[in-house]
Design goal:
By secondary structure, the protein is of the alpha/beta class. The chain has one domain: 4-Layer Sandwich (Nitrilase/N-carbamoyl-D-aminoacid amidohydrolase), CATH 3.60.110. The chain is 27% helix and 30% strand. The chain is built from 7 helices and 16 strands. Strands 1, 2, 3, 4, 5, 6, 7 and 16 form an 8-stranded mixed sheet that branches. The chain has a 6-stranded mixed sheet with strand order 8-9-10-11-14-15, covered by helices on one side. The chain has a two-stranded antiparallel sheet with strand order 12-13. It is globular, with a radius of gyration of 17 Å. The structure holds the ligand NC(=O)CCC(=O)C(=O)O. One of its GO terms (molecular function) is hydrolase activity. Keywords: Hydrolase. It comes from Liquorilactobacillus oeni DSM 19972. Belongs to the carbon-nitrogen hydrolase superfamily. NIT1/NIT2 family.
Amino acid sequence: MKPFTVSLLQFKVAFAAPEVNFQNAKKHISEAAKMGTDVAVLPEMWNTGYALDKLEQLADNEGLKTKSFLSELSIKYGINIVGGSVATKKKDKFYNTSYVFDRKGNLLSEYDKVHLFRLMKEDQVITAGAGKNNFELDGISAAGVICYDIRFPEWERTLMKSGQQLLFISAQWPKQRIEQWEVLLRARAIENQAFVVAVNCVGHSLTDVFSGHSLVIDPLGNILLRAPENKEGVFNTRLDFSQIEEIRGAIPVFKDRRSELYH
Ligand SMILES: NC(=O)CCC(=O)C(=O)O
């Protein structure tokens, strides 16, 4: 399999300003496409930021605007897009929703964040999802989660235990816990023997500062790319999946699991 180029779109999410954010997302997606990316990956809640008390006015109704925006850009540039997540309103409830599109603009997956982050009061406004997020990009079996979800290794294992090779994470992870971000992500890569591609935003909300520090980690836990702090940009890495088989053969954790003991 030829190397697969991932582009991390570490951009500034303007608080409660969807129009600004759609423009900025478009600019970064077009930049990634010009660099020859295979997949562009966006951060969490990139349309509104954590403007939770303004979601009635700002959330994307049924995700229609985001879906047509991402679908059009994936067709225009012929690239896959892991669309981070956006605040949506579906029926009468708000969600933190991720959409994934293939190169032809087909929606591959829609995922509502499963674990809601109380420290940012997400649980008071957003409804938790209960569905999985697995999809294939150019024949690569992948999964995606959102930010706080990475603190629940049993969830990533659930999504990764059927041979998935690539885990995407989109986040608004505050600077003050950035060491934990890195440790958690390296552990998710090692235990699942898979590549981890994690995009954090820059910017700030009313209470938090986001410094970026987006990461690409290989299946042994080595850091292939650490995006600079506080810097907007498109950061690229090429992934070589040929090493995964050997790593899983040498230490076969998926074969050695004792799932009958795990309750
Ligand atoms: N947006 C989030 O889910 C933040 C999660 C976080 O900061 C954490 O420490 O966990």
